[in-house]
Amino acid sequence: MSDHVEVSAGQPLPAFELPYYVVVFSSVRTPGDLGYGETAERMDELVREIPGYLGHESARTPGGLGITVSYFRDVDAIERWRAAGEHRSAQKQGRAEWYEGYTVHVAKVERSHGFTRA
């Protein structure tokens, strides 16, 4: 089981112990659901089983741009998630049906801080 963090809806995830890694997935969806919602829920379940997964945050603009930032302890955790069989199948279906386009950025976080109003 991973060491992911749960927070209330509408709250940002905390700054994690440094260093850690982020995977930024920016996408534009095709029209319609086409099974996307169900698969997204399944991927959310699966990623939580990856050792080193810390959490993720997502947002979508009214114009259709979606951004998901996933947090991982190390590169090995990212690779385990990237290579997971069901995730690979979902990626393939995403290219075939769900996305007009997307980009993936992977970065090492060397500095992080946050603020919470008391």
From TrEMBL:
Keywords: Monooxygenase, Oxidoreductase. InterPro entries: ABM_dom (IPR007138), Dimeric_a/b-barrel (IPR011008), Jasmonate_Hydroxylase-like (IPR052936). Residues 19-92 form the ABM domain. Pfam families: ABM (PF03992). GO terms for molecular function: monooxygenase activity. Transmembrane segments: none annotated. PANTHER family: ABM DOMAIN-CONTAINING PROTEIN, BLL5343 PROTEIN. This is Antibiotic biosynthesis monooxygenase. It comes from Streptomyces kunmingensis.
